[in-house]
């Protein structure tokens, strides 16, 4: 099978999820794949497939190229047509015009994965120019896509409510690379327990809720270090908390190797993601990455995040915006006896490998491809 993986704006890192399944299929030796973006910014030379950008990476800054991408549907379509794929797989229902046109002209199946913001955009029906631009793409996807894949049961339900066709709408968990995200040696664990956060320092990710819970835990004598990885609009508030409370450490952004090192060292990973306007977490793959490293995860029961842990088995999903319950869940993991701690770590890893790995996700995706082309 020859697969054209398509999207609007592609930046790697961090959006490896756009290409990772195709890379796995190419590595098997049984399939071909190439990625086609309207504009791209690829800074990982180890990427396993070629990326064709309709707007050359030499044409100015990323912002300039992203603006040019609005008018780049036609060159993207021509590049896809020249590749002559068996199937076109578009990531996000937005920016899809060029890929849809190519699939239509080639008379091949068109599969779309919706990731969250595209579904929320479909629901919002904004009258602003950018909203109308995205809406026109979303409307075509709902009419023309052979299959639409949602990254969680939560998102599948929201997509159906937003008008995506129920008979062509399926849940497909993305999975994480359990060959890369692996447990370290027991000596990798820090002497002082680490509570780890990795994500955007934005209201929707709940980092200030975690800071509040951590300060309360520290005040009642639970020794730990809160390590916060990321950047965003709440960085100054997080830095101020770190200046006042010496158990809080802010690293800023790290590459995936640095993130993995911290996931291996942490006792518990926390992502108190929460509703922000119409937005909810569609999945939360970072929760799976932590568990693949053998680190239990705590999150809010918000959007699709709760589907990324096995509650009270590999972590906890607690009531949204309840910082007391958030702190209690973290404390439960921190105070596990050593034998139970080992059990939880092993169970977290085993669950992700069996149910949420990139390998199993790629096998399921191939089933969708075969159904679409059959």
From TrEMBL:
<keyword id="KW-0808">Transferase</keyword>
<dbReference type="Pfam" id="PF13439">
    <property type="entry name" value="Glyco_transf_4"/>
</dbReference>
<dbReference type="GO" id="GO:0016757">
    <property type="term" value="F:glycosyltransferase activity"/>
</dbReference>
<dbReference type="InterPro" id="IPR028098">
    <property type="entry name" value="Glyco_trans_4-like_N"/>
</dbReference>
<dbReference type="Pfam" id="PF00534">
    <property type="entry name" value="Glycos_transf_1"/>
</dbReference>
<feature type="domain" description="Glycosyltransferase subfamily 4-like N-terminal">
    <location>
        <begin position="17"/>
        <end position="179"/>
    </location>
</feature>
<keyword id="KW-0328">Glycosyltransferase</keyword>
<feature type="domain" description="Glycosyl transferase family 1">
    <location>
        <begin position="189"/>
        <end position="351"/>
    </location>
</feature>
<dbReference type="InterPro" id="IPR001296">
    <property type="entry name" value="Glyco_trans_1"/>
</dbReference>
<dbReference type="GO" id="GO:1901137">
    <property type="term" value="P:carbohydrate derivative biosynthetic process"/>
</dbReference>
<dbReference type="InterPro" id="IPR050194">
    <property type="entry name" value="Glycosyltransferase_grp1"/>
</dbReference>
<protein>
    <submittedName>
        <fullName>Glycosyltransferase involved in cell wall biosynthesis</fullName>
    </submittedName>
</protein>
């Amino acid at each position: 099978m020859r697969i054209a993986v398509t999207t609007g704006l592609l930046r790697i890192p961090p959006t490896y999820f756009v290409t990772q399944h195709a890379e796995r299929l190419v590595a098997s030796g049984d399939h071909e794949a190439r990625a086609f973006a309207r504009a791209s910014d690829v800074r990982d030379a180890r990427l396993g497939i070629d990326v064709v950008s309709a707007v050359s990476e030499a044409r100015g800054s990323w912002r300039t190229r992203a603006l040019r991408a609005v008018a780049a549907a036609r060159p993207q379509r021509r590049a896809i047509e020249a590749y002559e794929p068996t199937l076109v797989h578009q990531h996000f229902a937005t920016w899809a015009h060029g890929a849809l046109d190519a699939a239509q002209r080639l008379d091949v199946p068109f599969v779309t994965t919706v990731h969250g913001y595209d579904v929320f955009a479909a629901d919002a029906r904004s009258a602003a120019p950018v909203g109308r631009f995205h809406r026109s793409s979303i409307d075509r996807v709902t009419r023309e896509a052979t299959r639409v894949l949602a990254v969680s049961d939560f998102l599948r339900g929201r997509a159906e409510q937003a008008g995506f066709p129920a008979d062509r709408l399926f849940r497909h968990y993305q999975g994480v690379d359990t060959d890369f995200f692996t447990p370290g040696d027991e000596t990798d664990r820090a002497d002082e327990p680490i509570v780890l956060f990795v994500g955007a320092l934005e209201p929707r990710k709940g980092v200030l809720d975690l800071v509040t819970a951590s300060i309360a835990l520290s005040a009642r004598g639970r020794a730990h270090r809160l390590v916060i990885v990321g950047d965003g609009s709440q960085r100054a508030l997080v830095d101020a908390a770190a200046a006042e409370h010496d158990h809080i450490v802010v690293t800023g952004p790290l590459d995936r190797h640095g993130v993995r090192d911290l996931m291996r060292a942490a006792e518990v990973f926390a992502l108190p993601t929460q509703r922000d306007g119409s937005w909810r977490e569609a999945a939360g793959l970072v929760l799976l990455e932590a568990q693949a490293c053998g680190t239990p995860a705590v999150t809010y029961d918000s959007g699709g995040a709760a589907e990324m842990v096995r509650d009270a088995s590999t972590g906890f999903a607690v009531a949204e915006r309840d910082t007391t319950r958030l702190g209690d869940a973290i404390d439960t993991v921190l105070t596990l006896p050593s034998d139970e701690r080992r059990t939880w770590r092993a169970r977290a890893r085993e669950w992700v490998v069996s149910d949420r790995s990139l390998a199993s996700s790629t096998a399921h995706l191939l089933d969708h491809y075969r159904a679409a082309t059959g």
